[in-house]
Batch of 4 targets.
Target 1
Amino acid sequence: MDRLEQKILDLIDQNREEIIAAGRDIWTHAEMGFKEFRTAGKFADFLKAKGLEVEEGLAVTGVKGYLKGKGAPGTTVALIGEMDALPIPNHPDANPETGASHCCGHNAQVAGVIGSLFALTDPEIRDALDGNVVFFAVPAEEFVDIEFKKGLMEQGKIGYGGGKCELIRIGAMDDIDIAVGHHTDPAEELVLKNNSSNGFVNKVVEFHGRKAHAAGAPHRGLDALNAATLAMHAIDMQRESFRDCDTVRVHGFISRGGEAMNIIADNVTMEHSVRAKNIPAFTDASEKFDRSIRAGAVATGCGATINTMPGYLPTIPAKDTRVVEEALADVAQTKGYRISYHRADMHTTGSTDFGDVSCIMPLLQFGTGGYRGTLHNPDMLPIDEELAYVATAKIFALVAYKLLKNGADAAHALIESYEQVLSKEEYIRYMDSMKKVETIEPKPLPLLD
């Protein structure tokens, strides 16, 4: 660890109370995706207090601050924190105004990026960086609240349902060369997160039937709930056709199932995700999902609308993770933390829109603990704020510094090792190609009376 790296750690330690306060504040004021207006405002206030050039309202709520001003020469590294939370209103710390909870740990990400400001804006450290740093609070990583996002798309306010996907689309990532991301992991202390992950597409399906009295004259109805039930059975029958190596996952729920127990349902809505390890595999699974929906509609005579929304792409591991490993070691050395390593040969079946970022530029990721419970569950609670927020800030700052010191040699090496999967233009073409609406017309038989 060189002198400025030690100074980074010291500056963050000197501001630990403010960093922890930021983490607590965001934790208790959780907001859903594309609705993170309060969080965005708080983040922007920190950037402006440090005199940074700030852009706001990116992809509805995104906030971007430039350490050396927009357009500064050299390699640009983005430190990215996700602002959104999950719809878990029964969490003890749920925001009563939104029903949202940070059971994803995104509050730690934003607190970590804020904390890195205290070190990287120091004049001596800033001048030692041969390049620029972007502090980026981004919206809507959790692909939930799908009907709300669908509504934003129909209004023309967004093109895609994921925050980073939308930021790529509108060009807000165009001036970034390397992205650095963080994940909360309650099972770990410090962790290199260089594993691959599944990609996915989302489905919103509406079955259209005909109402009737469920006891007095059920034969006069077309039961949309039966159509949905049959479709879900058909989806289950597809599972043996999925290859184990593709880690396909198809899961969802019925978000609207009818109006009353004694009324044949005329309108039923299903929301599902179709995931897999690679694009061909989840494209194949998506087609099998659609034909299952058709089967449910045809068998019952109901109509259906299948709305396919592009989700996220699989995460591509980085080929050179030395700077993250060094940063983890530096922080572990000072606090005695345990380091785990999720390397490129490890795969997880969840998804993140960091995957989309990894397909167009180098992505470095790490994780920190400090929570107990299970991600995405109401038992998730911060129990070690030093680890959750302060250690996260230190790693963010150290990674940026290590990439950009000494003529940005490490950044250049990472960029040189990277093999781009899609250009921005190819990415947009692919995402747009996955936007599909299929309508199946109802074909009821004549009533017998």
Target 2
Amino acid sequence: MNLPTVVIIGRTNVGKSAIFNRLTESGKALISAIAGTTRDYNVDLVEWQKKSFNLIDTGGVDVSSLKKSIEELLFDQGQAKKQSQIKEGKIQPLLIEKEIIKQTKTALKKADLILLVVDGQAGLLPIERQLALVVKKLNKPVILVCNKIDNLKWQYRPNEFFKLGLGKPWAVSAANGSGTGDLLDEVVKKIKMPKGKKKISIETEKIKVAVIGKPNVGKSSLVNKILGENRVIVSPLPQTTREPQDTEIFFKNQKIILIDTAGLRKKGKIEPGLEKMATKKTLNVIRSADVVLLVTEAHQQLTRQDNYLAGLLKESGRGIIIVANKWDLLGANDEKMTDHIVAYYQNHFPFLNFAPIIFISAYTGRNVKNILEQVLAVHQEQNKRLDQKDLNEFLKEITGKHKPVPAKGLGRPKIYSLVQTRIKPPEFIASIHHEYTLHFSYLRFLENQLRKHFGFIGTPIRIRVKKQANR
């Protein structure tokens, strides 16, 4: 059942993302004093008074560009005779700003209700009068939100915004949360819930899939190709994506949350400020993901940074799929070429030999459809739990063929038992006599044999040694 959509708009730096984070009770949107911090629009679920709706935070652009988004939407819908009725000279936005305009236009098209945010401390500006006139032409419900009313000093500032003709300005402070409860009360009054069942089921099992890689390897292009829409901004400029972008999709009746992240660079090259904040968010996304797509460039040599990212993933315990993008730039793509590059990747990432490699082109769409199939397969392997009887037979077979090797001393250890203790990632405990040790190479042998017998494709395996008294 489709939920109502509420879209936040406003000029740059009025606190749209701060309001988004406050209403969704999340820290998803990146916040800074730099105008235009938000580029891709953020979407999250809000629940209030037993009602639910999707909240969209749009990218930061100047008012002229925001008006352009609205006017283009009006033109597309046939609600305006001219594409632009506001004569301010020709606007030539940069490539990224053009994409932000497209995304804002897409968000407004989905909107059932609009939250127009203004800055109460800055007061009413002439450009906001012009913006209000254009917003009215959308013929959609609008709530005027007067932000930054952080204390009594500013309590009378919202009154001047009555001049916009959009009704009561709702005084809020995204910084301390005051007024946001009253605002949500008004939002749920204005939105129309879909007909049908009164209660909407939202909590279903989902797989979180994070898309990571160096800057400009094609992560956002890949996400857009999977989704079939321009959900995230794509440009030739590195670091275009700043905030993790969550999009919910269904594939074979399975809910998947696809998360596009900011490109990760070497620690020494990460600039303070926005890039550092974006990097921190990306690392948090990796920790909370179920499966991670490591995106690389098939036509380029792998780098130390690729190696660093692969190491991060190995330690994270997440399911891993290596995605070799830009396959179309290789020219020849026969079976011999594929085998050669698979061998190259396995040689470069020996500690990820369990991760499947998919060769794709986000530009042409080659093999992109196979990624979600592989995500389901890896997720299933992460959740695999072996029967103890099968493990007992496995241990007897492999220790009979290859005796355990001690880490030190002459005594040969005996593994009493091998028990699976958890999933995601699968973890096992090998119990030995307390006077003996087990060489790390034998643990690696155990892992390889577990994979050979039981699969575990795309998921790390952890094996711990437990020492026991005499048995």
Target 3
Amino acid sequence: MRKDSFYRLLHHSIDAQERFRQRWEAFNDDTTVQIDEQTMKEVLSALEEKLRNNYPFFHPRYAGQMLKPPHEIAIAAYLMAMQINPNNHALDGGPATAAMEIEVVQQLAQMFGYTEHLGHLTSNGTIANLEALWISKSIHPEKAIAYSSSAHYTHKRMCEVIGTKHVCLDSFDNIEEDILRHGIGTIVVTIGTTALGKIEPLHDILPIAKKYGVRIHADCAYGGFFMLLAHDQEPIIAHHAFLMLKECDSITVDPHKHGLQPYGCGCVIFKNPEVGKFYKHDSPYTYFTSHELHLGEISLECSRPGAAAAALWATLQCFPLQPHNGLGAILRKTRAAALQWSDQLTKNSTLCEFVKPELDIVTYFPRTKKFTATEVTKCTANVFRHLMNHPTHPLYLATVTVDSHSIQTHYPEFVVDAPTTTIFRSVLMKPEHKDFVNTLLNEIEMAIKIH
């Protein structure tokens, strides 16, 4: 972040609240809420010290999990709105931010190709997926919800929460047979799996699902914003699945991942607005200053921060949902970083690529002298600790456990002496990663040679 300009943005957000308050007569804060400035400074200093126990998510040397700070425009906008503290449960809980939420959700729906929709922001992707599955159960109460073994574990949990039948599929290769065997009413297709960033074959599943009247829910929590790259003449992603998202019954996407937002900001969108009837409730204490449909009538969550809508609205003003500008330009760099990383691994004698990256998540492992599952796991753990604890230039990676036989499929000489193998996984979700690929790979390679 640019320190001087960021300070000015924050001051602008604070001054905006002062101008807002000047519209009403002044009053003194009650003595019960007054704290002297020195006490607050001391508390904040203590907080600063506690927060040192964190990893540098902002830095390209952090190439681990799906984590990065929000953009400064999102922080400043959140701060501005947070001082009002609107509740987007209903229009009079936050009329301005409710309108912003409707606007940004419409932009997201249009990005996916929906011509009409019903949707809202959520606190995270888990709640967004919960709502989509709940609607699916409401429409097909006696049928099962199916998801792949690569899907996020939240789908199994949420099916248990709503008390519906569910089935985990090893693959979608026999989906027509599975629909008939298990009585499937909804299929969850993940566009950007958490572990590998895999794009599941929506374009193959969808025609079969339509044939049997099966709903499709697309979990795009991580990969959704890559939709911006799908319309290129020569796409740098597997675009076929993305181009079919407009045919899905529901979609979830997390702006707090590739949308530059602070946690938590998720989103659920339905293709058919008529699903709103399942949310209908009659509350005697809900806000009624407007006869328009309010967001509380189309959400399982009640209280939701209006500041999240304000932050996303401001961000999309600065980074529009365009393929070559705004967010699209950022995603091109994260995707390019993954492709560059993959290309470098093909020329590397120390590191092996596990699978080709489909988004911006790369997976790889050391080629040990004894090329066995046990030795690779051991070396991965040692290098992981060594890099993270380096005294001057620590490097932060992540790991993932995979089926050892899946490695042997790509590397026949690999010896399966354990059922699973722990390998490296790096999420290159910062555009700055593109210029850091060689540095990161060189340091990983040097650490492997030591161990």
Target 4
Amino acid sequence: MVGSWTNSGAASDLLIPLDRAAPVALHRQIETAIREGVRSGRLPLGASVPPTRTLAADLGVSRGIVVEAYQQLVAEGYLSSRPGGYTTVAAGPSPAPPQAPVRVPPEVRIDFGYGRADVAHFPRAAWLRSLRRVLTQAPDDRFGYASGGGVPELRLALADYLNRVRGTNAAPSNVVVTSGFAQGIALVVQVLARRGARRIAVEDPSADDDAREHARAAGLEVVGVPVGPDGVDVAALAGVSANALVLTPSHQWPTGGVLPPPARAAVLRWAREHDAVVVEDDYDAEHRYDRAPVGALQGLGPDRVVYAGTASKTLAPGLRIGWLVPPAWLVDELAAAKVRADRGSSAVDQLALADFLAHGEFDRHLRRMRPVYRRRRDALLAGLARHLPGFRPAGVAAGLHLVAWLPPGLTEDEVVAAGRSAGVGVGGVGRYRLGPGPEGLIFGYATLDPPAIEEGLALLSGALH
């Protein structure tokens, strides 16, 4: 690439250090500095170097010393000079030594990866209307630092929505706005550790990149509680001693089980007996297809449950908005931890979501998306039955993914590798386990249209057979 320097540069631009006490002649020092600049690429090909008079004046040496240095560099091919013209760099850096060929894994064309809402359906026009209203109508003081709990408008709107739709028992003053669930669980772990917590229980299997990760970073012991077809095994939980339990009771991640009422009561009993906190990760309960809504566990035990929600699975993860509804005795500590973390989430985005909720746009968006996701879920179920009939789907009534248990003789690693060789991305359940368990795959379908789902399953089947 030809350089853009001009001949108005000075010695400081060339980074030429001169040591007058050194035994090396000054013109040799100038040569060495320019030569190294060319070799490293710091002086690009075609760049002009300062005229000899200018450089000599800047360095405090005679012009003859600079002329001698330039002449030597021209002779070596580093510089080029012509009468009446500029002196320019005539060479580039040495080519890099040849590298061994890098093995590039086959490209994944159809990705059944989990964890993504279809952001192509993000309601841009409605969100823009909310932003415009906020920017024209919000009081000036809302654009200062928010409290650790969040702006009042969003805390009120979330409490109203969650009480109405999720059956929570939430007061606006108990809502703490976070930057997604990831920050929310990190704040909960920090506060519990400060209060003396030593052990946290999680479902097995469960996500490996949030509660478990933050708990270990805080020095807490992580113990797994087995999961059955209907969520966490409360019989196994009875034998666990922990300061907190992280649950996905409305749609267990990743197996999809729904915790029934007797088990929910048992979880709350366990929490009271062990003076423990239950963190309810309500990550995708709004997406349901074949069942009636299941209320939040927090509504049954607001004194023991920290409810956690997020806009990532309903609107877009890029918004980075989540929320906690902790027991009253934890609110101030969580709000203070939020302030320490980042001085509060974006006030504009909080106000926009509050307006979005208040004007019913969130409900309308969910009503539009449920049939979209249901069609994709149905296409996945039909395709599995057609192309991979030995796979047993589970957790299909809600959410944005399902688990398919594998038939005897197949392992997760074999299927994942076969899929990748065919350009199909799919993940196994095993990486999320703390103990042994059956082999299965996680199929996310939120971002794939039915033809892509059909093609992906056909390719996977072909790769296996």
